[in-house]
Amino acid sequence: MQIIDGYGGRPHIEAFEVRELNASLHGPGDYVADIGDKMGCEVVTNNKIQVKSGAVLVQGCRGINPVGSIVDMIIENGKTGDNRNDLIVVRYSKDPVSSEEKMELAVVKGKAVTGGAAADPKVVTGNLRDGDTLHEMPLYRVALQGLNIVKVTPLFQTIRSTVQLSGLLDDVNAKVGPLSSLTTGVRTSIVNAINWLKAQVTNTQSTLEARTNGKAKIWEDGEGGNIQVESPNGVKWQMDAYNGNFRLYRNVDGTISPSYYFPGDVSNGNVLLSSKIINTLANLVANTKAGLLADSILVKSMLQMLMRSDAKRTVGYLSDLSRNVYRKTIRASMANWVATTDSMKAFEIDTGEKMSSILKIDVLAVGGGRCYPIPYSPNGQYIGTRLVYAYNIGSSTKNVTLLFENNSAWGSAYTLMTTIEYLQ
Fold first, then answer.
1. What is the per-residue burial (b if ≥16 Cβ within 10 Å, else e) of 338-354?
2. pTM for the whole thing?
């Protein structure tokens, strides 16, 4: 063991030790730092491209193109009728005799082809930890058609700073909203999804399938885009855009069961998913660009409706009573829930279940792309919609019925969604 950030009584810190720490903090790959001109480039002529200032991290080895500096990269002439791809690279090299190391910008010339698509030239991929003396990090692909440079494509990954990552996670937390209003299971799932996103931010060079050892896959077929996740014991869940609808299902040797659907038009918010699948969905969308987790219509809809199913589900167990805790969401049309000049009108809703006791009731009015908690006040002065009470609790012969009172203008665009946690 050796101290790095401390006085050792003699010069004792070597470059490879600093590289090890850099790689452990930022990742073992090749990156451009998000600072300065970020190694940006400008095409000056068909023979010259200028690379601007910036910093790179090559397998933990830092290099810099100083502020205000410009490096001219000379591109050899093309030929009429030929296509060619050249690569601008960051080249790390080490003298095998003196052990002197250096980093420079270079052009790797590609092979010209007549009439067809050009391929990128091969670059040298070394491993600095193993002592390799040469490694090339591709920065840009320079595409030539005939005598002209027609396109310059960045090939590098920009690495975010710790401050940027912290801000990104703060934005995600802010857009998801206060977790205290959600149930413990949903709250835990969302926190797990955010932590998963944090762990993935600096590890996006390899494919999703490679990073997950085949446990997550993305592909395209006649149904459009498909995503599959697999559990450690081989259970596979897939999601796709089947017939224009969002579909989530379990695939057992080609047999689809069960299946959850979001219709192509999700604006009315009438479809619910079980909270048990939130972590799977959140992990899948979290691998996309920042903000999508909170901004997508799909995830917003799920968060608004608390990811609950309209079928009875076992969601917990009271050990002191040796009783299961059940949850059910009852959906009812609000077509006849209108405002009147008279007193509030009563509405009864049959839950369809016999309950020995009720632990919790949540009520939402969902529609028009919005979600309103009940009780609801249309103007902040009086209650326009409320749950008065539930009756037949403890009956062995009658279902529990909910009594509501309303004097607010809802209409057919809205659905009343009542979620009950209870004992039987």
1. eeeeeebeebebebeeb
2. 0.43
378 burial via Cβ count (<10 Å: 0-12, 13-18, 19+):
middle
Report the Cα 57 to chain-centroid distance in Å: 25
CB environment 90-108: b (16+ within 10 A), e (fewer)? bbbbbeeeeeeeebebebb
Tell me the pLDDT of the chain (424 aa) as tens digits: 766 667 777 776 778 778 888 887 888 889 999 888 999 999 999 899 999 999 999 998 999 998 989 999 999 999 888 999 999 999 999 998 998 999 999 999 999 999 888 999 999 999 988 889 999 999 999 999 999 999 999 999 888 777 777 777 777 666 656 555 666 776 677 777 777 766 655 454 445 666 667 778 887 776 677 888 888 877 788 888 766 667 777 766 666 655 565 555 444 433 444 433 444 444 444 444 444 443 444 444 444 443 344 567 887 888 788 888 898 888 888 888 888 877 788 889 998 899 999 999 999 998 877 888 899 888 777 888 999 999 999 998 999 999 999 988 888 888 898 999 999 8
Q: Which residues contact 289 (CB under 8 A, 6 or more apart)?
A: none
